[in-house]
Specification:
Length: 309
């Protein structure tokens, strides 16, 4: 590395420039510092020149070094394979080595991949020919890089994560079931309220004499009987336990003996023999046509209103 000295601020001609450079090159560091303190040095006059190293391709020397440390060993001890790229399965031809663009990442990586593939295809038959196994046995157990305590901690952590996920899934399912149950319950309540409202409206129409039909009582009776049949079928499906069956077989079914002629809910709800015209004095023997158009008195109407409430 050569260092060029500084020229004075007064300057000199072009002819004396080379001489001043040779003289300034011999200046010491102390003289340069003094010149800098006097202001004689200016920016851009000191330039550091770096010599580029000369590249040398000593082929003979490299071959000599290679021959010195090369050992004549068998291939099984070296396991070295030097090949080009494998044949491209698409084009069915060897890819040109000179055509590979080093700046193209994909093409460069594919070149490495095909070269490794060619080496494997060359080395595997040699290993099989030498009766050397290339696959691990089924009962092979490698030494763990981590200790059993650390692996136990990892298992516990994974197990806790899995349990947390299961709990969250169960909570989601419970929320969905709760939401669905609430929806079904709301629908049932709305349907019951609607049925009750229709029943009250039908009763009021019947009390006011606007209708002489009792279909609403039949609907209520059929719904109650349907519920009872459903519960009975459920009981039949379930059936009695073994102890009850044994006692029934030994002593009979028994049952209630007294009160068989008492009224029940079904007999009370049975209004098939009810006649509205006879009950409300609307028959032909109770005044005829005039009785049908007769308006009830004030007191009777008040009682009917109170009964409806």
């Amino acid at each position: 590395m050569a260092r060029r000295g500084a020229r004075s601020g007064s300057g000199s001609g072009s002819g004396s420039g080379s001489g001043s450079d040779s003289e300034d090159s011999s200046l010491s560091d102390s003289e340069l510092q003094e010149a800098f303190s006097r202001g004689e040095l200016k920016p851009g006059l000191n330039v550091v020149l770096e010599e580029r190293p000369k590249r040398r391709n000593d082929t003979n020397g490299l071959k000599q070094c290679l021959s010195e440390f090369r050992k004549q060993l068998a291939w099984i001890e070296r396991l070295d394979v030097t090949l080009g790229q494998a044949v491209d399965s698409v084009s069915q031809s060897d890819s040109d080595k000179d055509a590979v663009d080093a700046e193209n990442d994909f093409q460069r990586e594919m070149t490495f991949y095909r070269q490794a593939q060619a080496a494997v295809l060359e080395a595997l038959p040699k290993l099989h020919k030498l009766h050397i196994p290339t696959r691990r046995p089924d009962d092979y157990f490698a030494e763990m890089a981590k200790s059993d305590q650390q692996m136990q901690k990892i298992r516990q952590k994974l197990k806790s994560k899995q349990e947390a996920m299961e709990r969250s899934e169960k909570a989601k399912q419970l929320r969905a079931m709760r939401k669905y149950g609430k929806k079904v319950q709301t629908e049932i309540l709305q349907r019951r309220q609607k049925e009750k409202k229709n029943m009250l409206n039908a009763v009021k129409r019947y009390q006011k004499g606007l209708s002489d039909k009792l279909d609403f009582l039949d609907e209520e009776q059929t719904t109650s009987q349907g519920n009872k049949k459903g519960s009975a079928s459920q009981r039949i499906k379930k059936g009695p336990n073994a102890k009850r069956r044994y006692k029934n077989q030994k002593f009979g079914f028994g049952g209630k003996k007294k009160g068989s002629k008492w009224n029940t809910k079904e007999s009370v709800n049975d209004v098939s023999s009810f006649r509205s015209k006879v009950a409300h004095n609307k028959g032909p023997g109770k005044g005829g046509k005039k009785a049908l158009n007769k308006r009830p008195g004030k007191r009777a109407r008040q009682k009917m209103k109170n009964r409806a409430r």
